[in-house]
């Protein structure tokens, strides 16, 4: 651990994974999102392993869920995005892909938040925009967080970049992050690695450090 001006600056993954100052963010592991991921089953298995290891060490855990506004409340950005994603020429021909409370909105089977864990709902790609996530983590003294879930190239990358500007150390668990487009996901990982703000690791390494079953 590097120390300067009364601050502790982690130099290794093990130092960043201090359970007292760590959180686990499970990003959009929802039925309607996960079914779009080719290797969704493997991603779910790795997320479950991370969750088990985090719970054993008392790591603060937050689940995220994404939803789309009903058409009358969808603004310019949401309608433009809907046209692109649904390949429609007119906004009137689009529909909310995952309405709030729909079957696709629910967390995947096997991911059951405990009473001491939180679920935060959002309509943004960055989990730190328009949600209480930042103030919750900051108020708990969280310095670094693990992030796993889907989709890497759509929501996880913007979340990681946003959080770095907020002063967090993001730890991306690559094999616990699914993607709808493999090439785009590889570009996301390459960009994050180049920038250096995030630590990139895998499930085995995290579980080994946290003392879970590697």
Overview of the molecule:
The strands form 2 sheets. This protein has a 6-stranded parallel sheet. A two-stranded antiparallel sheet has the order 1-2. It is globular, with a radius of gyration of 17 Å. The two termini are 24 Å apart. By secondary structure, it is an alpha/beta fold. Helix content is 37%, strand content 21%. The protein contains 8 helices and 8 strands. Helix 6 (152-165) runs parallel beside helix 7. It has helices at 13-16, 31-34, 40-56, 76-86, 133-139, 152-165, 182-195, 203-210; strands at 2-4, 7-9, 22-27, 60-66, 118-122, 144-150, 169-178, 199-201.
List the helices and strands and how they pair.
Elements: E1 2-4, E2 7-9, H1 13-16, E3 22-27, H2 31-34, H3 40-56, E4 60-66, H4 76-86, E5 118-122, H5 133-139, E6 144-150, H6 152-165, E7 169-178, H7 182-195, E8 199-201, H8 203-210
Parallel strand pairs: 3-4, 3-6, 4-5, 6-7, 7-8
Antiparallel strand pairs: 1-2
Helix pairs in contact: 3-8, 6-7
